[in-house]
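Note to self: keep these together.
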Amino acid sequence: MNWKSTAAVSGAGLLATWLASAPPASTPASSQAVRTPESHAATDIVREADRLQTRVRGEVEYAQPLRNPFRFGERTRAAGSGLVASAPAAAPVVAPVPEPLRVKLSGIAIDTVDGREQRTAILNTPSGLVFAHEGDDVAGNYKVGKIGEDAVDLIKTDGSVLQLR
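Structure:
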C-alpha cells in the first residue's frame, strides 16, 4: 500500500465515524414537554433560595476573647457573665522551703605528705569543681568535716551534718 491508498482508507473511516456519531436531525414534536420540567426546576430553585435567605443570621459583633494563651496572669471575667467576683481567700502562710544543696561528691583523692595520708574531697558545685580539705568552707553555708574513704561530712553553720556519698 502506498501513501495515497492509506490516506483514502483513513479518510473514509473518519467520515463513517462522524456520520455514525452525529445527533438525530429530528426535533421533539412538542416544545411544551421540554419547558415544563425546566420551569418546574426554576421555581424549585427560586423557592429554595428564598428559604435559605430567611435562615441567614445577621453578623455578630466582635467580642474580645476571655483568655489569651500567650499571656499569663489572672483570668478576667466578662461583664455580662452573671458571676459575682468574691474576695480572694487568704492563703495560709507557708514557711519557705530551703533550697536543696546542689553539691555532689565527685571523688576523693588521697596524697601522701610527710609519710601521712591527706585526703581531698572533689566536690561538684554550681560554680564548678572544688578541691576541699577538712575544715574548708564550701558553698557558703557548709564546712568540710571528716573525709572518709567513700564519704564526706559537710557541717552546716547551724551544726547539722550532711553526708555526701
